[in-house]
Task: structure prediction
Amino acid sequence: MIATLEYVYRKFDEYNRLMFDNKLPFIPIVMSSALTFVGRCEYRRQRTLSGKVRYCDFRLRINNRIDMAEDELDDIIIHEMIHYYIAVNGIADTSSHGHVFRQMMDEINARYGRHITISHLSTPQQRNQAMAGKRPTYKVIAVVSMADGKQGIKVLPRVLETILNYYNTVSGNDKVRDVKLYMSDDKLFDHYPKSGALRVYPLDAETIKTHLADAEKLKCDGKSIKFDDN
Ligand SMILES: [Zn+2]
Result:
């Protein structure tokens, strides 16, 4: 089945009562047509005046492009609800799928006969199925944050050495604070030249954020790149 907003809200409510003691507050749910992830619990980190970290602006993103069995989809919804529970209660975990996450997941799996896993990624088979027909043009986007607070982007070809060269060289520049990599099929990026040139095209942070809302985040350590699974 393909997820719908109505279905996900209904299931959120049902599992909130059944598994979370109805303690999860309302959360906006958004549908996502991303190919590589099936669900995601998004939020913002905020430091209070007293220096404590709190989380806000929660949002649940569920894929409505990949066809899944009902049980698979429900497992994904519950997986994201566990993330939400941990973040909304400010519980410290050892990593994004750390000790607390795994313990809650194991308990729910055992008690309710679910098959929740720690993966957010769609399977290659699901991706191929969803891509059959129109193949989206996924691009690698580097988002460059400058030391002076300004931001910019560069569209890179999907060639590992080219991406690494750009990442390492630009990251190493004094005027650059950091470089983050994404995969996106957003049309905005069609308007930028795709090359390994060591350039940055200025773009305001809000526009970048809006157009990368459905993007998959990539993790780069300077030597390799992989999907950031959390
Ligand atoms: Zn997760």
